[in-house]
Each structure stands twice: as C-alpha cells, then as structure tokens.
Design goal:
Blueprint: E1 8-16, E2 22-25, E3 32-35, H1 43-49, E4 57-62, E5 76-79, E6 95-99, E7 105-113, E8 118-121, E9 131-140
C-alpha cells in the first residue's frame, strides 16, 4: 500500500545536525507512527514519504522551512525575575513552562539574564537549523 493522505505510517528515522552529529534515532527502538497529511510530522518528511511503500529508504537534507521553521524573533520575549515562582531555577539553558491564552502549555528556554530581565526563547530547539534525515518506512495501513 502506498502512503497517501490518511494513511497510518510507521517509520524509523535518524536525525543529524549540520555537523553530522546524531541528534535522535528510532532505529534501536520503536518506529514513529503518524497519519499522513495531518501535520503530525515535519512537512519535509511528509513530502518525502508521500506515495512511497513499506521498505522505502532515503536520506534527505531539509532546510528550516521544511523542518521546524526559521527562528521567529517574536517568540523571544523577556520577563522580570519577579514573574517567576520561587521554585523556578533561573539560569541560562534551563526551561520554564507557562500557558498561552488558550491554556496550552508553552515551553521557553532561558537564553540570557541581566539585572532586571530574563530573556526567553519559545522557538523549537531545532528552529532555524538545516537537518539531515535517514528514514525507513516500516508499514503503511
């Protein structure tokens, strides 16, 4: 069966950054399962696997626009240290959770701290990055 909109697809992937370092892989574990055309995985991988069948293997390099998008400067915000609960560790590299106006959880990474401002980045950690994927389609239903 070929992958088309609405197909339930199981696939393995290996993800490498621009320097060739492995960021993540499912080849030693369970495959990822998604529904084609539902936006459950990044656009570049959906496009790559469209029309393919079980056993399909490929390597691809995806620009940010086909992966996690470019860095969105609007998602870099700041808050005063008094905006954080006392139990939150405010240090560069740590993450904090909050809710958007719709009640969805949003995760920010602390990227800079000065005397009266804590700068937070709400972009996906892989936003703005070119990524190399190796994929193998396991099954299509």
């Amino acid at each position: 069966m070929k992958i088309k909109k609405g197909s339930r697809v199981a696939f393995h992937y290996e993800l490498r950054d621009e320097s060739g370092k492995v960021i993540d892989s499912t080849f030693d574990g369970e495959p990822v399962i998604y529904i084609q055309g539902e936006g459950e995985i990044i656009p570049g991988l959906e496009e790559l696997m469209e029309g393919e069948e079980p056993g399909f293997e490929a390597k691809t390099t995806l620009p940010p626009e086909k992966a996690y998008g470019p860095v969105n400067d609007d998602l870099i915000v700041y808050a005063g240290p008094d905006n954080f609960d006392d139990d939150v560790e405010i240090e560069i590299g740590s993450t904090v959770e909050t809710e958007d106006p719709d009640g969805n959880t949003v995760i920010f990474k602390i990227i800079e701290i000065d005397e009266d401002k804590v700068y937070l980045d709400g972009n996906h950690p892989l936003a703005g990055k070119t990524l190399d994927y190796k994929v193998e389609v396991v099954s299509v239903d």
